Amino acid sequence: MIAADHSPTFFLALEVTLAGALGALARTLLNDAIAHRVASDFPFGILTINITGSFLLGILTGSTWYHGLSGNILAVAGIGFCGGFTTWSTAIWETLQLLRLRLFSQSVAYTFGGLAASVGAAAAGIGLAAIL
Q1: Region class of 86: left (phi > 0), else alpha (psi between -120 and 50), else beta
Q2: Which of 87, 103, 125, 129 sits a CA distance of 20 to 30 A from 55?
């Protein structure tokens, strides 16, 4: 059984929810801004969002591991904001769109390159937090 002091409070859940909404809004605004500047079937916006969100999550995680960042802050900023900001479901949808357009090499590059870049960005964020 989870101890009472480790269970989320109503206010923490509310903060995570609000941060998630802000993350989703930021994702929409950034994706639209990129789409208006880059005319391409390749989903540069969602790729950029997932990589930058992973980097931010890496910084938050590293700050928790190495510098004692509060678990509540990690929950709000990491689970809430980064969870709302990044979007792997949209990445999968974008992959399917590339396949529908018969852009097979782009779909493979997007899927595996995006995953590798996002994991690398998260690792870089953790590394950066470790040295700061």
Answers
A1: beta
A2: 103
